[in-house]
Amino acid sequence: MEVHFVAALERLEPSDAVRLAALADEAGFAGTVLADRFQPWLPQQGNASFVWAIAGAVGQRTTGAVTVSAVPGYRQHPASVAQASATLAALCATDENPDRHRLLLSAGDAIDEHVVGGYWPEAHERAARLFESAEIIRKLFSGSAKGNDVRHAGAHHRLETSRLWTMPPRPPGVQVWAGGPMTARRAGREGFGIVVQTAPRERLQALLRAFRDGAREGGHRPGRTTAHVQLSWAPTDDQALENALTDWPMAGLRFPRGDIRSPFDVVQLARAVTADDIRARIPVSADPAVHAAHLRSLAALGFDTAHVHNVGRAQDAWLEAYAQTIAPEVGA
């Protein structure tokens, strides 16, 4: 299983995100993961830089994969996401690794997407928009790679005669975020990979089973399966817990946060998060063996990739700890 470093742009200055990605590359991570955000979750996180600019810089400073999680269909039309992704893939591709860039597509959160003033749909419509957007992006990748124009007229998006004029040697791989078995099954049926948030073992097994069933129904070989892993490591257990409660209390929220619109609202909601809420949802420990065991359990379930986000502030120390004690344990 590949293990990739998540650089949280919500709280990293742009130059610091690039610097940490380079350190993660040296520490043995297989790549860097960046998410498209317009606002941070909490005001004190203080950042939300433009992901595609950071990804381009990361690609020039690292040798591993450069993964971007994007939200098509609101702030950015799927065609714009496809163009950005194809350009990044062309910029990052090397003879040794022509597939360095990977694209993840998410249904999005209101906190980022409502800012353009459009209607924010309910969850079922967001899922429909996600898959229609993914199909547009795939059509643009496929058609443009062959030198063909493509068109699209769907329930939510239109695309006039178009092609991408800058293309990498091979189109980027595409995965979609799957929040439940229905989305996972559809992703498999339509030939996409999936990304899932870590959860109890039984839920992860159900998601993987639905995904593989869908791939079989669609006549596809199952695509890449990725677990998004949040954890809190620090030099002491107490500090690891304090970091999670202070810096990333969203990990302990007991309800979906897709409809929250303001970082200032998240602050109020996060006041109800307790230490038990955090411990129930993510590993919290100063012992690297705890986190290594968690990653091994995901590999045993059959995930191809883990995207690891340490929610604490001491990212330099975390990368050092990963290189010295965790990477050897997980075979990275």
From TrEMBL:
UniProt KW Oxidoreductase keyword: yes
Domain of life: Bacteria
Listed SUPFAM superfamilies: Bacterial luciferase-like (SSF51679)
Entries under CDD domains matching the protein: Tetrahydromethanopterin_reductase (cd01097)
Domain Luciferase-like: 13-304
A Pfam family hit: Bac_luciferase
Keywords: Oxidoreductase
Protein name (record): LLM class flavin-dependent oxidoreductase
